[in-house]
Amino acid sequence: MSPPAPLALPPCWPDVLDRFRADISKDEHFRGREEGSGRGIFVKQVRDPANGRREFEALRCLAAAPGETLVPRPLDLTDSELHLELVEGIRLYDLLRLLRQIGDGEPQLGPVAGDVARRLLGRARRRAERMQALLGEAAGSLSTGPYPCAIKVEGMFSLLSELFGLPPLDDAMRVELDAFRERWDAAVSVPFRDATPKNIIVAVEALAVGRHPGEAARRAALARLLADGDEAFWREVPLFDIDFASVEHLTVPEDDMVSLLGHEASFRALTEVGAADAAPVAGELAEIARRNPPRAALAFFVRYLRFAGRKVAYRVVNPVGGATRFRHDRFGFYFQALPRLLAALDPTLVAALPATLARWSAIGTAALPFDRAGGGGRDAYLAFVGRPVDYWQESPLELAARPRRAARP
Fold this sequence. Notes:
Blueprint: H1 13-24, E1 31-36, E2 39-45, H2 49-63, E3 74-77, E4 81-85, E5 90-91, H3 92-105, H4 110-137, H5 139-142, E6 145-146, H6 149-163, H7 171-187, E7 190-191, E8 200-202, H8 215-228, H9 231-236, E9 239-241, E10 249-251, H10 253-261, H11 264-271, H12 283-291, H13 293-317, H14 319-325, H15 332-345, H16 347-352, H17 354-367, H18 380-385, H19 397-400
Parallel strand pairs: 6-10
Antiparallel strand pairs: 1-2, 2-4, 3-4, 5-8, 7-10, 8-9
């Protein structure tokens, strides 16, 4: 399918690009690799010194916890860079995607692939709960306040509405979103981990990106591992959680679980059916939601808006980045699933958001032509920043293997 025609640029386009850069784009960072003391080092550029210190302290807290290793060892911090132990492997997100492909294409391996996916998600969930408890104890020194709905929720609705020429947010929507923010701020209690499968490394060195000439070869290597039938391997393979910049904000306990188990890649692995036919909440995610359904509804609303909104904005504003960063993602799943999830978990929230959910539906309809878009067409964002941007999709290690470049002015 050819990419849709670029949208006509609205009068507010420079403002839209500024907001995209400030709130959505995370690609104007350098990720490099250095060697020190004979060990690999992963270098992450921090957003600012204060945020870097928070992330470093969160990593130190988790690295010191007894029992199963949770994170790469934090090694050093400067005002601009965080140095971590380099972990080679494959992101859980990419592993789930390859397991799905093997299950669909090799029926004899389908049951094994499904079992491995569910086993890893179960382990990741238990780890996420443990990390929540540890970070919760340190919340006073890590977090500065609730996840900011005015920017992350109302701002996203405003941005997407402007992109598709929909009316500005009216008084009814603003009243609804103000009331939502009050519910949210009263419910948050734990630092936001951002536990999406894209932020978890499964330390199978044989599946690291640089070990194979392409995706087919890496999928074949995974198929050989599955054919070996070694269940103990998947019970014991180390997992490493990465990216704790989000601990600056407090969120509800269900948010990290929705990030982990409610991402489309995880949801499909847990339900084993197409998104259109899946139950509103299934498997381990249903167990999480049953603990506090109204709070889970808040988490789904915020997280699915952010999951879908980022992908939509990339595809429209920065199609080159969207085709790279999200080439395996579709945002239609989230637009379709959210109303059913909210209705199942908290009908009172649905009743409190009629104008907002109507706008959600209108944005989903307007965005649909971009759901499978490639990277063609005018890239307004690259023209705006006036320089190349590094994008990573398969693994941070893709850029970690590149030589350090001189900083641009």
